[in-house]
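Sequence and structure are no longer studied apart. To make this concrete, we show below a single chain and its fold as tokens.
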Amino acid sequence: MTETKRDFLTAVERTHGRRLRQFLSARVRNTADVPDLAQEVFLRLLRLDSHESIRNPQAYLYTIASHVLNQHALRDAATANKVRFADLLSGAQASTQPDPAAEIETQQFGAALARALEKHSPRAYLTLVLHRTEGMPLKEVATQLGVSYSMAKRYLAQALTFCQLKLEDPE
């Protein structure tokens, strides 16, 4: 790393580091993730070939942070919420099907449905999980994804339509 790049990163961290961590902390559920997310932001800034071309380091830093937050949210939803989505679906149908074999079949179908929706549209999947499973308001989901409120509503509608179609015709 060249001395000028090191100086640039040090200056950006000194000037914007605290506010960046506050920005990240306000947008994640688990504040223990904030140091890792901040480190990822600065690593991406470090990977730049020419930092001299950045006109507004603060705006660039927050743009990178938004991308890191979006990827973090998608990654979290893809790993932690798959089971919750399947459990939610099976829980809704378990009361009508006391048979353990039927419950397992329903859970497997729910997991397959979650995987299919995630492949079809990761953002629609994430919106559905955050809104329905986590109970997060759509405005907060929109902020988490870095999209408008109306786009979050579209993602939710897309996810629900997809699920409805799969429930009607599982093939």
